[in-house]
Amino acid sequence: MIFADDISGQCHAECAVCFEDLCAEPVALFYDAEGPTGKRVCQHFFHAACCAELPGKFCPLCNQAFEEPRTLPGPTEAPRQWFSMVDFDQSGGLTRVLC
Ligand SMILES: [Zn+2]
Ligand SMILES: [Zn+2]
To answer: Could you tell me the distance, in angstroms and rounded to a whole number, from the CA of residue 79 to the centre of ligand 2?
Structure first.
C-alpha cells in the first residue's frame, strides 16, 4: 500500500516546461473534456501555471491534444480526489506515480 504522503515526499520530478521541481508549485494534468466525462489524455504532469502558458492545447512531452488542464489538489487537502486523478488506469492502485 502506498500512501499519498509517501509519494509527495519522494517526488523529485521536474516540470518539463520550466525545469523547476514539480512539487514546488501546484501541478495540473491534461483532460480530454471538461466536466465528469473528461479523461486524462496522458500521464504527464506540469505546473498549473506552466500549463496556462502553453502555446497550444498539446502536451509538451507527448503531443497529445487536451481540452482542459486540471489542477491537482494537494494529497493532504483532498486525498480521495488526488488519488482518483493520479490513478491513471483506474485500477485502484498506483501503477504509475509522479516520479
Ligand atoms: Zn513549470
Ligand atoms: Zn503527455
So the answer is: 23
